Amino acid sequence: MNRSVCSIFILIAISFASFYSHAQCVVTALSSTDTVMCGSCATLSAYGQGQGQNIFHEDFNSGGYGPGWQASQQAMFNNPCSASGVDGTTHIWMGNSSPVPRILTTQTYNLSTATAGVTICFDMLFATQENTAPCEGPDEPQEGVYLQYSIDGGTTWVTFQYFDPNGGNDPLLVNWHNWCFALPLAAITGGTQIRWFQDADSGADYDHWGIDNVNIFMNDPTYVITYIHDGYNLGASGGIDPNPVCPHATTTYTVQMTNGSNTCTDVVTVNVKMPTVIANAGADVSIC
After folding, report:
1. CA separation (Å) from 269 to 29, 35, 65, 224, 234?
2. Using CA atoms, how far apart are residues 212 and 87, in angstroms rounded to an integer?
3. How confident is the model over 109-125, as pLDDT tens digits?
4. Is residue 219 a contact partner of residue 236, using CB atoms and an 8 Å limit?
């Protein structure tokens, strides 16, 4: 039987957001499709982050701003909507002390020595829509929070992530969730600032949100990401494995990220669907 090779690669758009608060590395395995017909192929990819030099960390456990912030507006440290926070400690809450703009801005950092990229991680919570004030959350598309960077002292800001409220009940937003994002290459300079920014609400009593456990670090270039089944080296941050997989049965593939001291792994399963075979011998034309 001839093997049919699938040449259609479905690109998966990734907002690389995953739990990172207490890990030295994290890696995510992906497939261009989760199911193939027997004899067809899929393309695997993997993306990871290994923590190197820590640039900035803030957990707000002191009940105030630690060093590293340049400007913070309208922030509270007593949140009536999630008093225990994500980990039972104090966190920052953009509540009803003032309407927008609600802004949290870091000081300027030198990121120019990063050779494998820079990552920012933090915990975030949106209040839930239709709760009573002062615990009412964003719901309109323009009421979300921008994650931005500036490389000119705060004169101009570039958005690299926007948290759309999605109607105000998105479980990833109305529950504490840890987010991680790679800074764009243009943001890796000798003078970079990061800010969280909200410029639309329905008044001071509405559209509240908070963050905790902010961590900015340079990725460690000594990590190597490898798919175990073929040994292909994807480098320190990951990418696409150029060797398609064409399993004849449902198969799970493992990717490993390691620097020799710390190792993390992830798996991705490609399901195989067997084709339906219909045989037709045509009309019986034999003559007795």
Report:
1. 9, 9, 44, 21, 19
2. 9
3. 999 999 888 999 999 99
4. yes
Is the pLDDT score of 18 beyond 90? no
Is the omega angle on the peptide bond into residue 134 within 30 degrees of 0, that is, cis? Answer: yes
In the numeric block, the tokens 């009536």 are attached to 80
The pair of structure tokens assigned to 269 is: 């399963």
pLDDT of residue 15: 37
Query: Residue 46: pLDDT band by 50, 70, 90 thresholds?
Result: very high
Distance (Å, whole) CA 107 – CA 120: 14
H/E element, 174:
helix 171-174
35-37 sheet: strands from edge to edge: 35-37, 263-273, 251-258, 224-227
Whole-number Å distance between alpha carbons of 268 and 270: 7
Q: Please count the helices (runs of H) and the strands (runs of E) in the chain.
A: 1, 16
Total residue count of the chain as it appears in this document? 288
The greatest distance separating any two alpha carbons of the chain, rounded to the nearest whole angstrom, comes to 98
Is residue 52 within 8 A of residue 221, CB to CB? The reply is yes
Q: How far apart are CA 89 and CA 214, in angstroms?
A: 14
| CA distances in angstroms from 80 to 97, 129, 164, 214, 227, listed in the order given | 12, 15, 23, 21, 46
Q: What are phi and psi of 141, to 5 degrees?
A: -55, -30
Counting Cβ atoms within 10 Å, is residue 43 exposed (0-12), middle (13-18) or buried (19+)? Answer: buried
What's CA 176's distance to the chain center, in Å? 14
**Beta bridge partners of residue 226, listed in sequence order:** 233, 256
Pick from 49, 56, 50, 10: nearest CA to 30: 10
